[in-house]
Records
---
Amino acid sequence: MDNERVLPLTTRVPVLATVTTAVLLAVTACSDNSTDRAGSASPASSASGSASSSPSASSTVKVPSGVTLTDQGSKLTFGKPATVIFEPVQERGTVLQLTVLSARQGTLADFKGFILDDAYKRNADYFYVQVRVKNVGTGEVGGAPVPLWGVNRANTLLPAVNFTTRFPTCPSRALPPRFGAGATMSTCLVYLSPNKGGLRAVSYRPSQQYDPVTWTGPIAKPKPAKKS
């Protein structure tokens, strides 16, 4: 899946952006920091797909003895772990245990201090998803994004928003620089669903041919606004 050329912003602000096959988001925060860059996107991707025997036909990842992979197409509820092969690049991968713990809907008020400069961002739904990641394989995958997508009511894949400035409401981060065997981390992922598209599921789908593992569960309502 190809991405369009990345273009520099013209304002000197940090960027909140998705590097995505589904949507383009560049929400900027009010700051005097140096110029950053926003990702841009190719057309939307459907969340449906056909099954294959592994995430990649040429996968080099070995599954440790005693570790059982979750079947492709498994439908899990929040709190249930999935064990999957994760290979961000050829010959660099491991086996991850991914758990989607919970989800709640956010509001535009959460982005106070960010510049929502077009109707696309203002008319979206925002969701915050708590996840836990454990490396149960033997490979090193430090620095890679957490490989989970949102899925909206139109069955479109929603990439997690990539923050280049701090967002305390849902602190998001990639895997630490070192994430080898036995490493664990918890994080919060933000998903933007265009046109008030909701959130139907969270998905692990490393390739077009992979029948995704999905999580569903109750989505908490937005927190009430604080009274001044």
Note: The helical segments are 119-122.
---
Amino acid sequence: MKKLVASVLALSVFTSAAMAGGPVVVVEEPTPVVEEQSGSSGGILPLLLVGIALCVALCGGDDDEPAPAPVVDTANQ
């Protein structure tokens, strides 16, 4: 009788562990997609560069020095 009780007890311990729970389903949460927004100054930069180029071309000072006056050689006349 003790063997029967021991075997039923052992069988119940192993059976409960084998039947416990169900399959483990791991569901990963989708990673959120974060898109970077373009900068607000993206449209003004080409206009700024064009303005600077026009100012350099049209407003540039005259850096040439005046030509020296021609030297007249009066000794050979």
Note: Helices lie at 2-19, 44-59.
---
Amino acid sequence: MMRRKRITFKDVLKKEMKNTEFRFYFERERAISEIARLIREARLKADLTQSELARKAKTSQTVIARLESGSDQRTPSLDLLERIASALKARLMVSFEYLKAA
């Protein structure tokens, strides 16, 4: 009897990442999730509530909550991220991560 190879999530993801549209949306979701995590961690480190951060960043608590949840499909503007960074006494940094040649 022949054994079937077990297909893992990693195998499926590797295959799907070859599709440029899939990769675009996957990477976009990853970026939104990372922004959410970073904002929440920085806010907690600064010992601020969502409302306090919102006031300092000149936005609403609802906006901060949506950003931190990562559920908002809109990508936050650089202006908003800069205001949040400033309110947290932090510096916003943007970088490029280079992919290996295929």
Note: The mean pLDDT is 90.
